[in-house]
Design brief:
Number of strands: 5
Order of helices and strands: HEHEEEHEH
Number of helices: 4
Strand order of the largest sheet: 2-1-5
Largest sheet: 3 strands, parallel
Shape: globular
């Protein structure tokens, strides 16, 4: 979660803008949660860890998509847990578990993840973006932003009874995220 004092300060500023008739658009003041693999500037008070203790306390700049979200007037209230390294740590791992965030729990399953549960078992929250789906299903925010390589958005959103929208590869920059597929990596020329 973002520091309460920063959230309050940002919300007051956006409310003043709205009171003065100067909104930034239809998303002005809407809270959103980001998957912890989407880079945020350290000034927002939230680390980007990809669920790994190795990245706790690291300094970063906002991903371009984060700048667009802030420019639209949205309030980033926190980072969602994920499968550590977006599931790239290995095969057969429990979906939604990271060293930093622990096990993501479905808001619809009593008792949490069943012992020995498989990745797509009844009590499992779905793919690597499970925290993003669970935060919306639990009512923490009306929207979340996640990343998709192979079912990371579609599986958790279905399990959380939500609509998950996966944009066409290449329609948005993946700069500042943890892309796992050669199709989603943005190649840049240097020189």
């Amino acid at each position: 979660m973002a520091p309460v004092d920063l959230l309050t300060q940002h919300a007051k500023l956006l409310n003043e803008e709205r009171a003065n008739g100067k909104t930034k658009g239809p998303l002005h003041g809407i809270p959103i949660i980001l998957k912890d693999s989407i880079r945020t500037d350290s000034q927002l008070g939230m680390d980007t860890t990809c669920g790994s203790f190795a990245l706790v306390g690291g300094k970063a700049k906002n991903a371009p998509i984060v700048n667009a979200i802030l420019k639209a007037g949205m309030i980033i209230i926190g980072k969602a847990n994920l499968s550590e390294w977006a599931g790239a740590k290995g095969f057969g791992l429990t979906a939604g578990w990271s060293a930093v965030g622990g096990q993501t729990q479905s808001p619809y399953v009593r008792g949490g993840l069943a012992e020995g549960e498989k990745i797509l078992g009844h009590s499992a929250p779905g793919g690597s973006s499970s925290g993003s789906a669970v935060t919306v299903a639990a009512g923490f925010a009306p929207l979340s932003l996640a990343t998709e390589t192979d079912g990371s958005i579609t599986q958790p959103s279905g399990r959380a009874s939500l609509y998950g929208i996966e944009v066409t590869v290449g329609a948005l920059s993946t700069e500042g995220t943890l892309p796992l597929s050669p199709l989603t990596v943005q190649h840049r020329r240097h020189g």
